[in-house]
Each structure stands twice: as C-alpha cells, then as structure tokens.
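STRUCTURE REQUEST FORM
Protein name: Two pore domain potassium channel family protein
Source organism: Parahaliea mediterranea
Requested output: structure tokens
Priority: standard
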Amino acid sequence: MLINLLLGLATMTVCLLLQGVLVVAALRFFSHRQDIAHSAFIGGMRVTAGMMCILIAGNIAQVAAWAMLFYMLGEFDTLSTAVYHSAVNFATLGYGDIVMSPEHRLLGPLEAMNGVLMIGVSTAALTRAFHEVIRDHHPR
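Status: completed
Returned output:
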C-alpha cells in the first residue's frame, strides 16, 4: 500500500507541475490577446475558447500520465484500456466497468482526487478569463 501511495503522490506531483505550466501558458495566451476592450465580444470569447483548449489538452495529458502508470504496472493489457480507465477516474465518473486489481486499486481514488483538483484549477483559470471578457465589455 505504501508503494501505491508513493507512486500516486509522485504522479500527482507530475500532474501538478504539468497543470501549472499549462495554466501559465493559457493565461499568457489570454493576456496577449489584442486589446480585448476594443474588440468584439465574440473576439474575446474566441480567445477564451483557445485558452480552454490549452487547459483541456493539459487535462488530457494528465489522464495519459496516469494511464501510463497503470499500463507500466501491468494493470491493463492495452494502453487504450488504461487511458479509458484513467479518464473515468480523472473525471470522477466511476463507471466501474473496468476495475483495477486489489494490489493497485488505491491509485484509482488518488487519481480521482487529483482530477477534481486539477479540473478545479482549470475552471478557476477559465472563470478569470470569462470575468475579464465580461468586465471589459460590460463596465459598471
């Protein structure tokens, strides 16, 4: 169990670093927009959509990192099954159609906790961008 905890925490750290880099990249992308206060609202939303794509790519990369861990541990015969299982965990869907062995099942809840936190970070970054777009186009 201790090994699984350490592997999970190490993977969570990798995901946090990846998320941090991509949030910074997304916010830089957003901040380098052409003077959004003088552009159309649609232009602002287009930039926000680009930012969303960067953040989603980051979440997908994190799903892939967890999937690689599961695959390297021999939990799944194919990488595609590991990716599917990882996506279900990361998004906290919890379908239960594919389960891990008792030896490594602690990693599932760890990934779910990681997913909740990292999707929350993405949501916070997008909320900031939406707020700025709306503020710039609808001043008080």
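Reviewer notes: The two ends are 55 Å apart (CA to CA). DSSP finds four helices and no strands in the chain.
Form closed.
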